[in-house]
Design goal:
Shape: globular
Largest sheet: 3 strands, parallel
Order of helices and strands: HHEHEHEHHH
Structural class: alpha/beta
Strand order of the largest sheet: 1-2-3
Helix content: 25-40%
Number of strands: 3
Strand content: 5-15%
Number of helices: 7
Radius of gyration: 19 Å
Distance between the termini: 35 Å
């Protein structure tokens, strides 16, 4: 978390707090409520911020934003289209072997632009071409372990491409 904060320009860095592990739950809620915007993944803090009326920028990858995104308020939802996303609710082992390619494809410039928009600031300087590169190919397909076990026990057929 601190390494991300260190990427912020020196003049703005004092306005950004790294509170990872530093607050109890009540303090954490108070911080979220006072924040101008919360940048987060699809997580508990996202949904707490929504409940508290705090604007959010949220990044989705393994989960479907259509199912879990905030429905009301000032929020920006970012996701990347890769063939295997969303996989979280469909497979035991993701096709990308945990590399979260869907998250890696959401670049800093996109997150910074969405944050600036919610704060009423001009978009950030920088080359949008510096976005994360597209993921490499992921061969094969995934089958839930439970389906594979069922097939092995004679309950059907399942195979796994490599």
């Amino acid at each position: 978390t601190e390494s991300v904060r260190q990427m912020i320009t020196p003049e703005l860095r004092p306005r950004v707090m790294n509170a990872a592990g530093a607050l109890d739950f009540g303090e954490f809620l108070a911080l979220i409520e006072r924040a101008d915007v919360l940048v987060t993944g699809d997580s508990g803090p996202l949904h707490l911020a929504v409940a508290l009326g705090t604007p959010t920028v949220s990044v989705f990858g393994p989960c479907a934003p259509e199912a879990y995104r905030p429905l009301e308020g000032h929020h920006r939802v970012l996701s990347s289209s890769v063939y295997c996303s969303p996989c979280l609710h469909w497979v035991d082992e993701p096709p990308c072997a945990g590399e979260n390619l869907c998250m890696q494809r959401i670049g800093w410039h996109e997150v910074a632009a969405a944050t600036a928009e919610l704060l009423g600031l001009p978009p950030p300087d920088g080359d949008a071409g510096e976005e994360a590169s597209a993921p490499g190919p992921v061969a094969g397909y995934a089958v839930r372990k439970s389906v594979a076990r069922e097939a092995a026990a004679g309950g059907g057929t399942a195979s796994r491409g490599e």
